[in-house]
Design goal:
This protein is α+β, with helices and mostly antiparallel strands and 356 residues long. The chain contains 13 helices and 13 strands. 35% of the residues lie in helices and 22% in strands.
């Protein structure tokens, strides 16, 4: 008989904001926004009290302030968040070694076999949530399911501080009523394209011939059709280190180098926000440029200390731009900013500044 796979997805509730509220009693019950103040700052996290006003992660901080004037802004402390994340990982490891972190605040666990001999994945998830509450004084939501895709949907089902289980025999009743936007990879544009085909729910997607979806969306369409039926064969891969995070922008028209600052700032903000979810620390900043003639140029810098803020990342990227020595008439069609060379936070000896 085939082994029934058991996956748990654990997602810490409003993680950064909850850590701040835990460590400062004066913040408890208050609308807390973890962000630097400023026109260019973005929200790293918002407490559930702030979310009631529409404040969300990755939102411009200035907009969050307009939505919730009484919000308490707290500058992020990622050293502390990473320390708490390591504590949650230690709790996970009591039950399984098959742990795939997605960010500081969430991870997949394969508990098909667990170290404690608990009879069900649901009991494992309950025990983990209990330890997080008792030892770390935080709450986590968990989803239990036969694969990663379904477990992630389940963990969001009863947030915050909830546990939801999707049994294999329940997949065919649970999935069809869901809006198609619940499938990973279905953003606003894809949802609109699906709606043009009359596909609004997962059930609608199930009813379409696979060849029709694949003809419109290629391999992504094939993947969406599989997910509509709850099919996800991806394994929990422990210790898969991030190698790089980057963001690029192709201009509507080719522009000179001196006109790239706004794009560099915007891309650096995206990269910084994405990097804050990583357990590992990036060391190297990379600037990428593509000329009108499709020649790719890169410049990189490894500072003696890791970049500590979004503004510092922007400054490094702009400094790298100054190292591009080309004719004034040169035009560019694409620009990118990235973080490379990730390492564990405890392994951070000072290094000399390196340019290339």
């Amino acid at each position: 008989m085939a082994v029934r796979i058991k996956i748990v997805h654990v997602d810490m509730d409003a993680f950064y904001a909850s850590v701040e509220q835990r460590d400062d009693p004066a913040l408890r019950g208050k609308p807390v926004v973890v962000a630097w103040r400023g026109n260019r700052s973005v929200v790293c996290a918002a407490s559930y009290e702030a979310r009631r006003f529409g404040v969300r992660s990755a939102m411009p901080a200035i907009r969050a302030e307009r939505l919730c004037p009484q919000a308490i802004f707290v500058p992020p402390d990622f050293v502390r968040y990473r320390a708490v994340s390591r504590q949650t990982r230690e709790i996970f490891s009591r039950y399984t070694d098959l742990i795939e972190p997605l960010s500081l605040d969430e991870a997949y666990l394969d508990v098909t076999e667990n170290k404690c001999g608990l009879p069900t994945a649901t009991k494992v998830a309950s025990a983990i949530r209990h330890h997080i509450r008792d030892e770390l004084h935080l709450t986590a939501s968990a989803g239990v399911a036969p694969n990663k895709f379904l477990a992630k949907i389940a963990s969001d089902w009863r947030k915050p501080d909830g546990l939801f289980v999707i049994q294999p025999e329940d997949v065919d009743t649970f999935l069809p009523p869901l809006p198609v936007e619940r499938l990973p990879g279905v953003g606003k544009v894809t949802a609109e394209r699906l709606a043009n085909l009359g596909i609004h729910t997962v059930g609608d997607l199930r009813a379409i011939e696979p060849a029709t979806i694949e003809s419109r969306f290629g391999r992504h369409g094939h993947r969406l059709h599989e997910l509509a039926f709850g099919i996800d064969d991806s394994e929990v891969v422990p210790d898969r280190p991030t190698k790089s995070i980057s963001a690029e922008d192709t201009f509507e028209r080719d522009i000179p180098l001196e006109e790239t600052e706004d794009a560099i700032r915007r891309l650096a903000e995206k990269v910084w926000t994405a990097s804050r979810k990583e357990t590992r620390v990036p060391r190297t900043v990379v600037l990428k440029l593509k000329t009108a003639e499709f020649k790719t140029l890169t410049r990189s810098l490894t500072p003696a200390e890791p970049v500590a803020s979004c503004e510092e990342l922007i400054g490094v990227a702009l400094a790298l731009r100054e190292r591009v020595a080309l004719a004034p008439a040169q035009r560019f069609r694409l620009i990118g900013v990235g973080f490379h060379n990730f390492h564990d936070p405890d392994d951070s000896p000072a290094q000399p500044i390196l340019f290339d």
